Amino acid sequence: MSATATSTPPPAAPKVSSGKGGRTRFSFPVVLLIIAGALLALSAVRSITGAQDVTSAGQISAALAMAVPIGLAGLGGLWSERAGVVNIGLEGMMILGTFFGAWAGWQTDPWIGVLAGVVGGMLGGLLHAFATVTFGVDHIISGIAINILALGFTTYLAKLWFNTGEASERGGSPKQSPPADSITQVTVPGLSGWLHSVEQHHWFFVSDLAGILGGLVTHVSLLTLVAVVLFAATFFILWKTSFGLRLRSCGENPVAAESLGVNVYRYKYIAVIVSGGLAGLGGAFLSLVTSHIYNEGQTGGRGYIGLAAMIFGNWRPGGLAMGAGLFGFADALQLRNGGESVHALLLLLVVLLAVLAAWKLYRRSFVPGVISAVIAAAVLVWYLATDTVPTEFVSATPYIVTLLVLSLSAQRLRMPKADGMRYRKGQGK
Questions:
Q1: At what angle are helices 28-49 and 339-362 packed, to 10 degrees?
Q2: What is the CA radius of gyration of the chain?
Q3: In whole angstroms, what is the distance from residue 397 CA to residue 405 CA?
Q4: pTM of the model
Q5: Residues 6+ apart with CB under 8 A from 133
Q6: For a tag on the chain, would you pick the N or C end, based on fewer CB atoms within 10 A?
Q7: β-strands 16-18, 185-186: how paired?
Q8: Contacts for 299 with CB less than 8 Å, ≥ 6 apart
Q9: Shortest CA distance to 257 belongs to which of 425, 424, 428, 133?
Q10: 3-state SS, one letter per residue, for 305-333
Q11: Is the sign of the CA dihedral 336, 341, 343, 347 positive or negative?
Q12: Count of Cβ atoms closer than 10 Å to residue 285 Cβ
């Protein structure tokens, strides 16, 4: 036996573990440290700028409401792409969810509306699966077609159903539905009030932590709790069951999966239909929880942002949840306080870019490091020279955050190997 084979390998790093392909996966304590570091940075920004709403319970509650539909759309994309089907049609499936959720919700019960929104999204998913899996249509073309069809279909039905009879009398119009009843919200008694009192002292870190926790236990919709359960269930089903292993094998190597007896078409159909149902649930959340009515253009590109959150999360539920939370936070911030709060976040962006530049230079990635440092300096000059952010930039904040996050995280991403590839039955024989 050679000396190389018998030599003792160097000890592994204690805080991180390497996944396949040399990708680094952080342990739970390291993740907690990263979260604590982010909270410290937000606390510092709040203290320096005086933007108290950055970590307030109201901001966190609004961010959670904005993050749920994005997260559900991204979760739908995760199911589909783990089975090898790219689902650009998430936006259209969300549109179907908003429409059918509101249509059933105002006439009957909001929970029936939720079910109708899920069914509407599943029909969109079935159409996408039929086109891509059975007929081998290009996944991107099929998804774009579904987005266009869903928008035109719901626009036509809204004029037909919401502009006449009882619907019109109760506030309906060609572009919106009558209002539906609210879904029950829950607040943890005692804890919510105590956290609010701590938040009002504006203590460094402590009040910020109280504000964040207060937003998570105050006026939380039951549908939000359903979304949390769905995230946990997705992780368990896809990574802890034989069904999930077979489904993921269809997205990694469908030919090998078929050779082992897996019905690839069946698993792809299941994944894409579930994907549509989750996107439809996200749409129903928008029309039944966020606004209580259907509005034309209500999704506002959240299906695409959900897809971006899924990519940011590296096709994993945990990373997806973090990405959805980030985008939801940016969306809520620009809606609640506009230019002043977004201006305060410029200082946080300077810190993050400076840390990134230092890390890239330490790793001898000189070009990205220098670029990050230059951008950090430019943003710092912008922050010091202004008191607020123009309205046009404020409204674009969620989309700018999407592009920025994806550009900074692109180097660590690893999509399913057969994602988006055409597969024809019998290739494994």
A1: 130
A2: 23
A3: 12
A4: 0.88
A5: 85, 265, 268, 269, 272, 423
A6: N
A7: unpaired
A8: 69, 91, 94, 95, 98, 283, 286
A9: 428
A10: HHHHHHHHCCCCHHHHHHHHHHHHHHHHH
A11: negative
A12: 31
Question: CA 410 to CA 412: how far, in whole Å?
Answer: 6
Region class of 211: left (phi > 0), else alpha (psi between -120 and 50), else beta = alpha
Tell me the β-bridge partners of 16: 26
Q: What is the mean pLDDT of each run of 10 residues along the chain (429 residues)?
A: 42 42 60 82 86 87 94 97 96 97 94 97 97 95 96 94 89 91 91 92 91 93 96 96 96 93 95 98 96 92 92 90 88 76 83 84 86 88 85 75 68 83 77
| Nearest one of 89, 121, 124, 105 to 162, comparing CA atoms | 105
- Amino acid letter, residue 369: G
d(C-alpha 373, C-alpha 284), whole Å: 42
